[in-house]
Every structure is written in structure tokens, then in C-alpha cells.
Design goal:
147 residues, mainly alpha, 0% strand, globular
Length: 147
């Protein structure tokens, strides 16, 4: 696990959380950078419980500012489809790397799952420029190892 990747993710989440009114460029650029960084992180598969807990603790700490910003800013409800897709990819990556722990508090999970399901409903539009990103959301969920 690369420490600079974790610092990048944490920094972007903190920056997004501190901006009073982030413009669309920041809202598009941030999830794009984070989704790219998250894709480089492997889901912890350490056999030793203490080591796995330590790795998950680092991942939780690094992703917390962005997870908090996604909920606080309501990015899953953003009007721009590109933003919503990038946020969905980030959310899926959170599920993948933090499994089996849920990446969001229980009170937010229902809305998060509805958000992810809404992305699946748009898979029928195979001619969309966003189709490959929607497929990526499905593929990421298939990669989650909950054991």
C-alpha cells in the first residue's frame, strides 16, 4: 500500500470538505483523481488479523475525509451525470478496499445503495458515452471480497 496514494486521497477529501462552494471543475477533478488512486489499492487479504486490522485502519483514515464529503455535500445527487458516475466509482472502490466493513455509517447505506442501483438502471443505454464507466461500477462490485 503506497503511502503517497493514501495521502493524495486524504488530501483531496479534506480539500473538498473545506471548500464552501466548490466549482464543477473541482467536483469533477477530485473524484476522477481519487477513483484513479483507489484503483491502485488492493483489497487487504492479509491472513494475520492484527496486520489486516492495521491496514484497514490506515485505509479508513485516509478515505474518511472523502467519504464524509460525499455524504455531506450530497455528491451522489449531483445534477451532472459525470460527477455522479465518478462518485459511484469512488463509492464502489470504498466498498472494495474496506470490505468487509461498510464504508459509510448505517444511516447512509440505504441511500448509497439506491444511488448505486440507479447507476445500474442506466446500463440499458449502451450507446451512452458513460456506458463503460457504468460497466466499471458493476465490475468493481464483483471484485469485492467479503471474506
Amino acid at each position: 500500500m503506497n503511502e503517497s496514494t493514501l495521502q493524495l486521497i486524504s488530501g483531496i477529501g479534506s480539500k473538498l470538505g473545506q471548500l464552501a462552494r466548490p466549482n464543477k471543475d473541482v467536483i469533477v477533478k477530485s473524484p476522477r483523481q481519487v477513483s484513479s488512486a483507489l484503483s491502485q489499492i488492493e483489497q487487504p487479504s492479509v491472513v494475520e488479523v492484527a496486520t489486516k486490522a492495521q491496514v484497514l485502519g490506515k485505509l479508513e483514515a485516509a478515505t474518511k475525509p472523502l467519504r464524509k464529503s460525499i455524504v455531506k455535500r450530497g455528491l451522489s445527487n449531483h445534477t451532472d451525470k459525470d460527477v455522479r458516475l465518478l462518485v459511484a466509482i469512488c463509492v464502489d472502490e470504498f466498498f472494495r478496499i474496506l470490505a468487509p466493513q461498510p464504508p459509510f455509517a448505517d444511516k447512509y447505506l440505504k441511500d448509497i445503495f439506491k444511488f448505486i442501483l440507479s447507476m445500474f438502471m442506466e446500463l440499458a443505454d449502451t450507446t451512452s458515452a458513460f456506458f463503460s464507466r457504468r460497466v466499471k461500477i458493476l465490475e468493481l462490485l464483483l471484485d469485492v471480497n467479503v471474506a
